Amino acid sequence: MKCIRCRKEIPEQSLYCLYCGKKQVSEKKKPHRRPNGTGTVSRDSRCKNIWIAHAPSSGGKRIYLGSFPTAGDARNAIDNYLREGCPELYHATLEEIYQLWSEIHYRQVSDSAVRLYSSTWKRFAEIRHLKMHDVRTAHFQKIVNQAKSESACHAVRTLAVLICRYALENDIIRKNYAEFIRIPRFEKSEKKIFTPEEIALLWAHSDDKRVQFILFLIYTGLRIGEVANLKVSDIDFEHGYFICGEKTKAGRNRIVPFPENIPEIAEFVKGWIQDDSGKTVLNATTAQLRHQYFYSALAELHLAEPDSIEHGNYQFSGSHLTPHSARHTFASLSASAGIPPEHLRKIIGHANYSTTAEIYIHQDIEELKSQMKKIRKV
Questions:
Q1: Chain center to CA of 117
Q2: How far is residue 6's CA from residue 19's CA, in Å, rounded to a whole number?
Q3: Which H, E and C letters describe 317-373, residue by residue?
Q4: Which pLDDT value is given to residue 26?
Q5: pLDDT by residue (tens digit) across 350-366?
Q6: 240 vs 267: CA distance, rounded Å
Q7: What is the torsion angle, in degrees rounded to the nearest 10, for the CA atoms of residue 222, residue 224, residue 229 and residue 230?
Q8: Contact 54, 44 (CB under 8 A)
Q9: CB–CB of 36/44 below 8 Å?
């Protein structure tokens, strides 16, 4: 046999090499043992390729820190935990971190943003119970993949990034895993708009408050959320316009004149107002306007055929008219009427201008009103 070190010939079954003295029996490496009181690293009994890290016991019970692909990663997790002084939030769940983040963030954003984040958070129900430091990109990606629209995917990713950023700032996680989320590709379908025949049918039933609401959307171009937030104090009937807006800088606090050639639109709004307080005009949430007003009226007029109605919510699987279809219809009517793009962008809230509302009113309101005169009944 040959020495395992110097490779010289030595007698068979020699315990040591006659030349270099190297012991010929290979010794198993002793597992790395952490000093007492500094935590433990062990293999997962169900999978030998997974290592489990426990921090020193607290109150007689070991603190589980997570599972890791290598023993080194597990040791680093323990070291980070000890170095950072055992942060109180280390074992917080995703839901607990969301609640802490939202308490701060919701004070800094608009009401519409709060509603969007709150509704998006409902999509996290499947993983909200997980420890924040155990949540990975795959967990977030699964939620994104279940969304049925590109906007919903982006909303999930944005919320996940913000929550992870808060966790990073508080040393709960070491990496923002939400930043690696991939948005699936969606085929863009052309938005449906109301046809002249459909609009004529709506006018034929304009004594219905629900139909009045739809016509208001069609002839002002407002988003459904903007109507939900429209206050009585935002309307100036004397000068023929109202102030509204949400979502973007250009869309907020913008002036929208009533179409002068369609006086019924202003009359509808006057009929909705119960008093002259600072309350909203319709006193309804976006969800109520969507289902109890918009889809309810369309279904009754056979302009929309829902697959089902669950708890008052109309469910559709195919292409159908939506509240945003009214906004697209307004843009189409305006373009056909000859309203210049620069004025249409201001009315609809897509322009990127920075003039203050007061200066804007003095300089442009009459011009915008003259442009709205071009829109007539279909």
A1: 5
A2: 8
A3: CCCCCCHHHHHHHHHHHHHHHCCCHHHHHHHHCCCCCCCCHHHHHHHHHHHHHHHHC
A4: 66
A5: 544 333 233 223 334 66
A6: 11
A7: 40
A8: no
A9: no
Name the residue with tokens 């009427």: 337
Angle at 206 between CA 266 and CA 279, to 5 degrees: 45
Cα Dmax for the chain: 113
- pLDDT band of 336, cuts 50, 70, 90: confident
The token pair at 93 is 């769940």
Amino acid at 360: Y
- DSSP β-bridge partners for residue 52: 42, 67
Helical axes 264-272 vs 209-220, angle rounded to 10°: 130
State the Cα–Cα distance between residues 371 and 378, nearest whole angstrom.
Answer: 17
In this structure, what token pair is assigned to residue 9? 């010939």
Is the pTM above the cut of 0.85? no
**10 with 2: CB under 8 angstroms?**
yes
> Tokens in use for 156?
């999930």
